[in-house]
Amino acid sequence: MTADGGNQLISVHPEELKFIFELEKQGFCDLKVINNTEHHVAFKVKTTSPKKYFVRPNTGVVQPWDSCIIRVTLQAQRESPPDMQCKDKFLLQSTIVPSNTDVDDLPPDTFNKDSGKTIEECKLRVVLYSA
Protein backbone atom coordinates (compact mmCIF):
# COMPACT_ATOMS: atom_id res chain seq x y z
CA MET A 1 0.00 0.00 0.00
CA THR A 2 1.49 3.32 -0.98
CA ALA A 3 0.94 6.78 0.41
CA ASP A 4 -0.36 8.08 -2.91
CA GLY A 5 -3.59 9.40 -1.45
CA GLY A 6 -5.85 6.88 -3.21
CA ASN A 7 -8.77 5.85 -1.06
CA GLN A 8 -6.58 5.49 2.00
CA LEU A 9 -7.66 6.81 5.36
CA ILE A 10 -4.53 8.92 5.65
CA SER A 11 -1.74 10.11 3.43
CA VAL A 12 1.81 10.71 4.58
CA HIS A 13 4.29 13.29 3.30
CA PRO A 14 7.09 12.81 2.57
CA GLU A 15 6.97 9.13 1.65
CA GLU A 16 10.55 8.60 2.83
CA LEU A 17 12.23 9.64 6.06
CA LYS A 18 15.24 11.66 5.03
CA PHE A 19 17.95 12.37 7.59
CA ILE A 20 21.16 14.32 7.23
CA PHE A 21 23.60 11.97 8.90
CA GLU A 22 26.38 13.40 11.04
CA LEU A 23 28.32 11.37 13.58
CA GLU A 24 27.46 12.14 17.20
CA LYS A 25 24.59 14.41 16.15
CA GLN A 26 20.86 13.92 16.23
CA GLY A 27 18.90 14.36 13.05
CA PHE A 28 15.20 14.69 12.58
CA CYS A 29 12.50 14.43 9.96
CA ASP A 30 8.93 15.68 10.22
CA LEU A 31 6.13 13.60 8.73
CA LYS A 32 2.81 15.17 7.90
CA VAL A 33 -0.11 12.81 8.36
CA ILE A 34 -3.30 13.93 6.62
CA ASN A 35 -6.72 12.46 7.36
CA ASN A 36 -8.52 12.05 4.01
CA THR A 37 -11.89 11.13 5.49
CA GLU A 38 -14.81 12.48 7.48
CA HIS A 39 -13.93 9.96 10.22
CA HIS A 40 -11.61 10.24 13.19
CA VAL A 41 -8.53 8.17 12.40
CA ALA A 42 -6.10 6.78 14.95
CA PHE A 43 -2.51 6.13 13.93
CA LYS A 44 0.47 4.31 15.36
CA VAL A 45 4.09 4.42 14.19
CA LYS A 46 6.31 1.36 14.47
CA THR A 47 9.95 0.98 13.48
CA THR A 48 12.39 -1.86 12.96
CA SER A 49 14.94 0.02 15.12
CA PRO A 50 13.12 1.47 18.15
CA LYS A 51 16.37 2.20 20.02
CA LYS A 52 17.68 4.43 17.23
CA TYR A 53 14.66 6.71 16.88
CA PHE A 54 12.34 8.82 18.99
CA VAL A 55 8.91 9.20 17.45
CA ARG A 56 6.68 11.94 18.90
CA PRO A 57 3.81 11.38 18.97
CA ASN A 58 3.97 7.68 18.14
CA THR A 59 0.20 7.30 18.46
CA GLY A 60 -2.55 9.81 17.96
CA VAL A 61 -6.00 10.59 16.65
CA VAL A 62 -6.41 12.90 13.65
CA GLN A 63 -9.70 14.79 13.31
CA PRO A 64 -11.65 14.57 10.02
CA TRP A 65 -9.94 16.39 7.11
CA ASP A 66 -7.21 17.52 9.52
CA SER A 67 -3.51 16.74 9.71
CA CYS A 68 -0.79 16.40 12.29
CA ILE A 69 3.00 16.45 12.32
CA ILE A 70 5.02 13.52 13.63
CA ARG A 71 8.65 14.28 14.43
CA VAL A 72 11.05 11.37 14.02
CA THR A 73 14.42 11.95 15.67
CA LEU A 74 17.45 9.86 14.70
CA GLN A 75 19.59 9.45 17.80
CA ALA A 76 23.22 10.47 17.64
CA GLN A 77 25.19 7.54 16.17
CA ARG A 78 28.81 6.65 16.88
CA GLU A 79 29.52 5.15 13.48
CA SER A 80 28.29 5.55 9.94
CA PRO A 81 26.33 2.75 8.32
CA PRO A 82 28.22 1.02 5.47
CA ASP A 83 27.84 3.04 2.24
CA MET A 84 25.31 5.25 4.08
CA GLN A 85 22.73 2.54 3.41
CA CYS A 86 20.02 2.32 6.01
CA LYS A 87 17.78 -0.72 6.23
CA ASP A 88 15.54 0.76 8.92
CA LYS A 89 11.87 0.92 8.09
CA PHE A 90 8.83 2.56 9.58
CA LEU A 91 5.26 1.34 9.51
CA LEU A 92 2.37 3.73 9.97
CA GLN A 93 -0.83 1.94 10.88
CA SER A 94 -4.21 3.67 10.80
CA THR A 95 -7.79 2.76 11.60
CA ILE A 96 -11.11 4.54 12.03
CA VAL A 97 -12.14 5.21 15.65
CA PRO A 98 -15.31 6.67 17.20
CA SER A 99 -15.48 10.46 17.02
CA ASN A 100 -15.12 11.04 20.78
CA THR A 101 -11.98 8.90 21.08
CA ASP A 102 -9.02 10.52 22.80
CA VAL A 103 -5.54 9.15 22.19
CA ASP A 104 -5.35 8.16 25.88
CA ASP A 105 -8.55 6.11 25.53
CA LEU A 106 -7.46 3.94 22.61
CA PRO A 107 -8.09 0.29 23.50
CA PRO A 108 -4.96 -1.92 23.54
CA ASP A 109 -6.23 -3.89 20.54
CA THR A 110 -6.83 -0.79 18.37
CA PHE A 111 -4.09 -1.81 15.91
CA ASN A 112 -4.56 -5.57 16.26
CA LYS A 113 -5.67 -7.06 12.95
CA ASP A 114 -7.35 -9.92 14.80
CA SER A 115 -9.83 -7.47 16.34
CA GLY A 116 -11.79 -7.48 13.09
CA LYS A 117 -11.06 -3.82 12.33
CA THR A 118 -9.63 -2.65 9.04
CA ILE A 119 -6.03 -1.58 9.66
CA GLU A 120 -4.30 0.28 6.86
CA GLU A 121 -0.52 0.19 6.70
CA CYS A 122 1.88 2.56 5.05
CA LYS A 123 5.55 1.56 4.87
CA LEU A 124 8.21 4.28 4.93
CA ARG A 125 11.87 3.73 4.27
CA VAL A 126 14.79 5.69 5.68
CA VAL A 127 17.24 7.59 3.47
CA LEU A 128 20.49 9.01 4.88
CA TYR A 129 22.43 11.93 3.45
CA SER A 130 25.90 12.97 4.46
CA ALA A 131 26.20 16.54 5.68
How would you characterize this protein structure?
This protein is mostly beta strands and 131 residues long. The chain has a single domain (10-101, 116-130), classed as Immunoglobulins (Immunoglobulin-like, Sandwich), CATH 2.60.40. The protein has no helices and nine strands. It has strands at 10-13, 16-21, 27-35, 40-47, 53-56, 59-62, 67-74, 89-97, 120-130. The radius of gyration is 15 Å and the shape is elongated. The N and C termini lie far apart (32 Å). The relative contact order is 0.30. Residues 1-5 have low confidence and may be disordered. InterPro entries: Ig-like_fold, MSP_dom, PapD-like_sf, VAP.
Major sheet summary line: 5 strands, mixed
Number of strands: 9
- Total domain units: 1
Relative strand content: over 45%
In whole angstroms, how far apart are the ends?
Answer: 32 Å
- Helices and strands, in order, run as EEEEEEEEE
- The name of the CATH topology is Immunoglobulin-like
Secondary structure class reads mainly beta
**Average pLDDT level:** 92
Instruction: Quickly name the level 1 CATH class.
Output: Mainly Beta
Strand order of the largest sheet: 2-9-8-4-6
What is the CATH architecture assignment?
Sandwich
CATH homologous superfamily descriptor: Immunoglobulins
Q: Which term fits the overall shape?
A: elongated
Tally of individual helices: 0
> Cα-atom Rg, whole angstroms?
15 Å
Helical residue percent?
under 10%
- Enumerate the spans where pLDDT stays under 50 for 5 or more consecutive residues: 1-5
Family: Belongs to the VAMP-associated protein (VAP) (TC 9.B.17) family.
Organism: Citrus sinensis (Sweet orange)
GO cellular component, one term: endoplasmic reticulum membrane
InterPro entries: Ig-like_fold, MSP_dom, PapD-like_sf, VAP
